[in-house]
Write a structure and sequence with these properties.
By secondary structure, this protein is an all-alpha fold. The protein is built from eight helices and no strands. Helix 2 packs antiparallel against helix 3 and helix 7 crosses helix 8. The radius of gyration is 18 Å and the shape is globular. The model has no long low-confidence stretch (mean pLDDT 94).
């Protein structure tokens, strides 16, 4: 029977597909680390108190990238280039979502509006990341290789999501509510399309590595399109709601340091 667990088990059991999976994940996390680091460095004077939390967010993302590299190293694998059609962060940027890298490379302070845009973008993408890690944690928390990594990353992603909710609500109470809702909606609708496209690209690459028969590939593709249809019809709304999280000041402390041998 084709299930999420059996599908991912097949991917992690094969060195080539596992290497591709970890390379894609590490690439996205490392990119997020750089983006958050630049945003923290360029935060406006009025939001310098937020800068340490943004930096903590970036440090967590860098840590996740190192974890995926360590998982490959443990199996004697080297990372592979991320296919352009599977580069989630860059495809979002091409759609104008978040802060452009050209802007982040300039030594010019960001505006409060830029910070709101960053937080709204993060709220949407961290929702996706949190949900993906919950799924992996459900199926692989007891895996001797993946379990520790999955639990740590999942906890971090939940912290990131809580932080986005709390900070966006702070800005909403300060008078930015309409702007936040507009940006959240734009980000969510773009994200679900990019996620669909990236999922199809990744499954195509995995299918060729694992030599999936055409009927299996077709079923997986249909499932991806079905998820997009659900999200386009209304599922995207879960990505734009805001509520005060149970985890308050989730990024208020230093990032955890950990070594994966």
């Amino acid at each position: 029977m084709l299930s999420a667990k059996s599908l991912f088990q097949e991917i992690i059991d094969n060195d080539e597909s596992f290497r591709l999976f970890c390379s894609i994940a590490a690439g996205g996390e490392s990119q997020g680390g750089w983006e958050n680091g630049r945003i923290a460095a360029l935060a406006p004077d009025s939001e310098r108190g937020l800068a340490p939390k943004i930096a903590r967010h970036g440090a967590d993302e860098d840590k996740h990238g190192r974890i995926f590299h360590a998982l490959m190293k443990k199996r004697g694998l080297e990372p592979v280039p991320v296919p352009a059609e599977a580069d989630y962060t860059m495809l979002l940027e091409k759609r104008g979502i978040g802060l452009a890298h050209d802007r982040l490379r300039r030594e010019e302070r960001l505006s409060v509006r830029d910070i709101v845009t960053y937080l709204a973008h993060s709220r949407v993408t961290e929702q996706r990341a949190s949900e993906q890690m919950v799924m992996l944690r459900k199926h692989f928390a007891d895996d001797p290789d993946l379990g520790r990594a999955v639990k740590m990353i999942s906890n971090d992603e939940d912290n990131h999501l809580a932080y986005c909710h709390e900070e966006l609500l702070r800005f909403a109470y300060a008078g930015h509510g309409r702007t936040i809702q507009r940006i959240l909606r734009e980000c969510a609708l773009a994200e679900i399309a990019v996620y669909r496209d990236v999922s199809l690209a990744v499954m195509d690459h995995m299918g060729r590595v694992l030599d999936w028969p055409k009927p299996k590939a077709a079923v997986l593709a249909a499932g991806i399109h079905a998820v997009y249809a659900y999200e386009r019809l209304g599922g995207w709304r879960r990505m734009v709601s805001l509520r005060m999280p149970e985890r308050r000041d989730a990024l208020g402390g230093p990032p955890a340091t950990v070594e994966f041998a």
